[in-house]
Structures are given as C-alpha cells and as structure tokens.
Amino acid sequence: MHETEEDRADAWFHALSDRTRRDILRRVLAGESSVSALARKYDMSLTAVQKHVAVLERAGLITRRRAGRESLARGDVEAVRSVQTLLTELEAVWRGRIARIDQLLESSAQED
Amino acid sequence: MHETEEDRADAWFHALSDRTRRDILRRVLAGESSVSALARKYDMSLTAVQKHVAVLERAGLITRRRAGRESLARGDVEAVRSVQTLLTELEAVWRGRIARIDQLLESSAQED
DNA sequence: ACAACCTACAACCCTTCGGTTGTATGTTGG
DNA sequence: CCAACATACAACCGAAGGGTTGTAGGTTGT
C-alpha cells in the first residue's frame, strides 16, 4: 500500500528535524563534500557526523559516491521537492480541493 | 539571533516526523476538531493523542480554542507554508541563487 | 443533582536518538 | 614502505520519544 509512503515521510521529516542535519544538507546541496570535510565544520566527533550523513542518506535526501578513500555526499534536490509536495498536499486539504482527500483522511481511521 | 529560527524548524520537523501527528494535522486542516473526537479515530489512548496535539501546538502548526468542555484544534495553514518556505530556501541554496547563502552556511561553522 | 463526558497531568515503561570512545580497514603521497 | 588520512562500525551512555494507566477537575444535559 502507501504504507511505504508514510515510512518515507517519517524518514524525511525525522532527518530534517535535526539542525546539524539540515546544515549538512544545505552544504551538500550547495556542493559535493566528503564526510570528513563536513565533520571539520562541526564541534562534534567524526562518528557523530557520519551518523547524521547516514540518516540523511537513508531518508533519500542525499546520495553518496566513493572517490578513492573519501565518500562524497551530494544533496538530492528532487527529494527536497518531494517533501515540499507533501506539504502542498496538506495545504490542499485545507483548501478542501484535493480529490484524494478520502484516502488521505481515511488512511488510518474510520469516520464517525 | 536566528537561533530561534532553528528552534522553530526543529519543532516543525519533529512534529511532522510522526505519522499520527501528520494525520491529525490533515484532519484539523480540513476542519476544527475536539481532542476526544480525534482520539476516537486512532487505536491509542486519549492521553497519547493529547500529547500529539500538544506537540503540534507547541510547534505552532495548530491552534486551540476552548469551547465549553472541549478543546477545539485547528490547523494553521500559514505555519505549513512557513515550512514550505524553509524547504524552498534549501532548494535555492542548491540553485546557488540565494543571497543569504553566507548566513545560511556560516550559521554553525567556519569555512576552510 | 448527578452521571456521562472532555480535558489535564503525573508517573512509569521501553525504545530510539544523539553523542562518545575505541578499534579496524582501506587509500594516498612521499 | 609507511605514516597520515578517510571511512566504517561496535559498544556504550544519558536524554528524549511515544506509549500506557491512574487520578482529578471542569462542563453538560436530563
């Protein structure tokens, strides 16, 4: 079902709920960067940054490619747009003009 | 500072990172609803739903008004738009056309 | 008046999160 | 070759999350 879609949304918003991760995302949207280069910019261990990058990657907000000994991360702007789209759908619910409103609202409950 | 702005973003994304809360938000965007009416739609205790509503309220995504014995929640579409705006700024970083890019990227670190 | 209803909140439980240190492995440049 | 560097990952820790039950107080309708 679209159970998966909710999972994706969980991952997206959770990934974005940490300011360090948002900052990392900004940086790798502006330009590819290695994990250790990123780590140098924050007052925390390399491992901590590694974990943040992993969370962003699992959420699909960034991608990584191997380049020799370093792992280069790049922001995925399409994923960011998907999150925006999700919010736009919320807005559409408000405006009362979404066709899928039943599915959206019936997703995890019954009317009364 | 805009430390506060990061705090707001933390609260927004954290509030949105739970599917029950997103569902509640959809419902109260579609129309005002009491907490107990919401609670009837989910397979969890009233207290759990109360907490979810409280999280959404603290994040500024919904507002509440008292009507006799019930507390009516309503979604704040302006707040949803603010979250979208934040994502649009991320997109703008990617496109390299945001003027405030320095502030955005210098927010919690130094260049190297 | 009073039973049914709605909300509020404390206390507790288990899991997840964000961080740490420590160890291991692969890569590079001189 | 080998030292410096980049990544990976396990193990641990305290704090925060999401859920529960239990108790209590305001509202409402008959």
From TrEMBL, chains A, B:
CDD domains: HTH_ARSR (cd00090)
Record's protein name: ArsR family transcriptional regulator
Species of provenance: Brachybacterium phenoliresistens
Domain HTH arsR-type: 1-95
Superkingdom, taxonomy of origin: Bacteria
A Gene Ontology molecular function term of the record: DNA-binding transcription factor activity
InterPro entries the UniProt entry points to: ArsR-like_HTH (IPR011991), HTH_ArsR_DNA-bd_dom (IPR001845), WH-like_DNA-bd_sf (IPR036388), WH_DNA-bd_sf (IPR036390)
